[in-house]
């Protein structure tokens, strides 16, 4: 899905989108809750996909994928150990495509790697794979404003 041929996605947000604007899509799939919004942080911006789960009766952010224009990256346990990995769009392609691939194929393994092994056992990876189109549609809708 490299829409431009240069490793970027070619996603252009509608004017006026601000972080914290209240616009957010929430999807419950396969035992996790995905929230999708369009974020601005400093000089960077882009779609963000957060993966939440109920751990010990508390809603915990397990993973976050920030598909930013300048510094796309993802986090394991962003509110805990916060292991952050930067993406190289030139070698890894579109950050949105990378995110969709990880959510569709590797969410369960990534949640376990984030330190939530017991929770990961209950994640239905096949349900996430089946509904990856819904995640894509939410990303597109958030970017469109």
Using brief descriptors, characterize the structure shown.
single chain; 145 residues; alpha+beta; 5 helices; 32% helix; disordered N terminus
Tell me about the biggest sheet? 6 strands, antiparallel
Name the average pLDDT. 87
Q: Describe the global form.
A: globular
**Overall number of strands:** 6
The secondary-structure class comes to: alpha+beta
Termini gap:
21 Å
Count of helical stretches: 5
Radius of gyration: 14 Å
Low-confidence stretches: 1-8, 12-20
Query: In sequence order, what are the helices and strands, one letter per element?
Result: EEEEEEHHHHH
Strand-residue proportion? 25-35%
Biggest sheet, strands in spatial order? 1-2-3-4-5-6
Please bin the fraction of helical residues. Answer: 25-40%
Number of domains: 1
Please, could you describe this protein's structure?
The chain has one domain (25-144). The chain has a six-stranded antiparallel beta sheet with strand order 1-2-3-4-5-6, with helices on one face. By secondary structure, the chain is α+β, with helices and mostly antiparallel strands. The chain is built from five helices and six strands, in the order E-E-E-E-E-E-H-H-H-H-H. The chain is 32% helix and 30% strand. Strand 4 (58-66) and strand 5 form a beta hairpin. The longest helix is centred in the C-terminal third of the chain and has 19 residues, at 95-113.
How are the elements arranged and paired?
Blueprint: E1 25-29, E2 32-41, E3 44-55, E4 58-66, E5 73-76, E6 83-86, H1 89-92, H2 95-113, H3 117-120, H4 125-130, H5 132-144
Antiparallel strand pairs: 1-2, 2-3, 3-4, 4-5, 5-6
Helix pairs in contact: 2-5
């Amino acid at each position: 899905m490299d829409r431009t041929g240069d490793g970027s996605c070619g996603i252009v947000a509608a004017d006026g989108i601000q972080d914290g604007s209240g616009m957010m899509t929430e999807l419950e799939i396969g035992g996790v809750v995905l929230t999708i919004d369009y974020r601005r942080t400093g000089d960077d911006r882009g779609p963000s996909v957060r993966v939440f789960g109920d751990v010990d009766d508390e809603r915990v952010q397990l993973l976050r994928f920030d598909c930013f224009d300048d510094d796309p990256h993802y986090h394991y346990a962003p509110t805990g150990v916060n292991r952050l990995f930067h993406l190289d769009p030139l070698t890894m392609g579109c950050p949105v495509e990378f995110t969709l691939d990880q959510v569709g194929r590797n969410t369960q393994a990534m949640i376990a790697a984030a330190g939530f092994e017991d929770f990961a056992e209950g994640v239905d990876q096949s349900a996430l794979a089946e509904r990856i189109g819904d995640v894509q549609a939410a990303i597109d809708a958030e970017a469109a404003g």
